[in-house]
Design a protein that fits this description.
Layout lengths: L6 E3 L2 E3 L6 E6 L4 E7 L3 H18 L4 H17 L1 H12 L3 H21 L6 E3 L6 E9 L3 E4 L7 H13 L3 E4 L6 H12 L7 E3 L4 H9 L6 E5 L2 H13 L3 E5 L4 E5 L5 H12 L10 E7 H16 L19 H16 L3 E4 L14 E4 L16 E7 L2 H8 L4 E2 L1 E5 L3 H10 L4 E4 L14 E2 L2 E2 L4 H6 L2 E9 L2
Parallel strand pairs: 7-8, 7-10, 8-9, 10-11, 12-13, 12-18, 13-16, 15-16, 18-19
Antiparallel strand pairs: 1-2, 3-4, 5-6, 6-22, 11-21, 14-15, 17-20
Helix pairs in contact: 2-4, 2-5, 2-6, 3-4, 3-6, 4-5, 9-10
Amino acid sequence: MYTKLALLIDGEWIEETNAGSQSVLNPATEQPLGRLPHAGKPELDRALAAASRAFESWKGTSPYERGQIMRRAADLMRERVDHIATVLTLEEGKTFAEAKGEITAAAEFFDWFAEEGRRSYGRVIPARISNMRQTVTQEPVGPVACFTPWNFPAVTPVRKIAPALAAGCTCIIKPSEETPGATLEIARALTDAGLPKGVLNVVFGVPAEVSEYLIRSPIIRKISFTGSTPVGRHLARLAGETLTLATMELGGHAPVIVAKDADIQRAAELSMSIKMRNTGQVCTSPTRFFVERPAYEEYLEYARAFVEKQVVGDGLNPGTTVGPVANERRVEAMDDLISDALSHSARLIAGGERLKGPGLMYSPTILADMPGQAKAMTHEPFGPLALVQPVDDLDQALARANALPYGLAGYAFTSSAAVANRIAEELAVGVIGINQMVVTIPETPFGGIGDSGWGREGGVEGLEAYTVEKYVGHLHL
């Protein structure tokens, strides 16, 4: 039911190394799923050499042919969706329905970039003299190293692999050691689709050691990281030492503004459903809810009623709507943040504790009347925790929403076009959802500002992130 754990280096699946291994656990049962081999220096050197060698031929492969391989991989992922989704649920915990949706979304990223790679056109610049031709072309930056977290072990890797391959880059990816299986299944789809060996290499190991070794290699010309802000800062410093290009998709603490003129029931039910998606372990998860006072208690009542209907359990059980948190660290963080908020006079509306029984199950939680000094208001909960505050007006809502250095996602609910336009202009985030909460799809750019990072994934910007511009001024003699 689970998958065979291995490294993928230069087209070879490696199940044992001298660098050791670690256990992969199922958060729904806290039982081991398998042993994951680590890459040591020999394996990393081999992956770097493979990526360097394969780049010379892959960059010369036509965008059409590169796209064909990616589309075949996407088709294979859709054919295997039940198996890959089962692997994902077993290792990460999200519900099987959410896991299937993630695999489907990942396949769509391959489809999008397979086509977009054929549109990296460059341009012709009109010259100042008649016998001069000036062109700008987009060329692949070179071998890239990508680092991805545990919460979306299919979509997040593909959001990096797909544009890299489409641009003509080779890739070494280090997914999370806690959720390796989904990425390995995607790598199998790519190899089965005909991806040449060495174009994609998948490695695991001690995160700090692997990332530092890869980033400091002169072979790697770009890195892409999704994860926490502190780790992102560290990797950015390492990249700066070698002037390696970097894309950083870092933490968030997404605000939600609920205006008094909104459809309050819809706003409450939709925002809570998205809040509890993947058990709140989403960088764009709505977290700080600022509700205008005339609608405040009504919003809380609808939110409470919705949350209390959720069924927490093993993600493979058909009736489960909220799976376990992914690891013990999230349980400890939830306990700490909730305890701290209650000590500062927050009001518990729903949930608030770990559930009894097997697995890392935590009750979906709503805290109201959140004081600004509570730790959760400045530290990303990354769990099933909604923090609700009343606000007097839109000015206060925007001021509080923009009070943190994070700027990834933001949301708003209103029936007023004027209010929506003002929020769109003044909310300091990279992506905004107004009266809806889907803020990332393959054809749109995704990324944050401030402490939420820099660079964009998805859209034309996602492809451009893996290219460099070359200007040619050709004087015809």
